[in-house]
Amino acid sequence: MTATVTVRKASTDDIEKLYDIIQGYARQGIMLPRTREMLEEQIETFVVAEFDNVLIGCGSLTRLGPDLVEIRSLGITQGYKGQGIGGKLVDFLVEEARKQQIVKVMALTYEVAFFQKNGFTVVPKDIFPEKVWRDCIHCKKQYCCDEIAVLKRLD
Ligand SMILES: CC(C)(COP(=O)(O)OP(=O)(O)OC[C@H]1O[C@@H](n2cnc3c(N)ncnc32)[C@H](O)[C@@H]1OP(=O)(O)O)[C@@H](O)C(=O)NCCC(=O)NCCS
């Protein structure tokens, strides 16, 4: 099935579906919520996976510093997991980072094994000071963060 899955940059036409996927996981506490306005403002940072013209996954790449980006909002809709689509999205995002000549791609996640399969290694969270000031201040778990930091170096 993965042969017919395509990954592309998102457009404003995708906002409603992106919102649904992210809200679904935000309700489960495994993703930070994004408003439609935020999605519109940040749409250029998003990529989507499609199968038969149906949007089945998404992810985004946020700049945290001169040499560091973070993968955020990575999610596959139920029924499509475990078929290589998350891996394709990560590959696409890593290529985007490479094009921007950024050497460090990180994520904060509960899905450590998935990221390790995609070439990331576990690192201490405190090596990412920029991250703390950008997004964690809006998170309910700011003072009790239980996510794991993973990093892929492209140099
Ligand atoms: C995490 C997520 C994006 C992975 O996407 P996916 O399409 O299911 O993953 P893939 O099929 O590309 O898996 C790639 C590899 O990782 C492995 N993998 C995926 N999820 C795994 C898990 N939870 N535990 C262990 N291994 C896992 C797969 O077995 C596969 O290994 P293989 O290449 O040896 O077969 C998806 O499960 C998801 O949407 N989860 C909920 C949202 C979430 O937690 N997002 C992460 C936020 S940072």
UniProtKB/TrEMBL annotation:
Keywords of the record: Acyltransferase, Transferase
PROSITE patterns in UniProt: GNAT
Residue ranges of the TM segments: none
Coiled coil: none
Residues covered by the N-acetyltransferase domain: 5-155
NCBIfam families: PRK07757.1 (NF005840)
Protein name (record): N-acetyltransferase
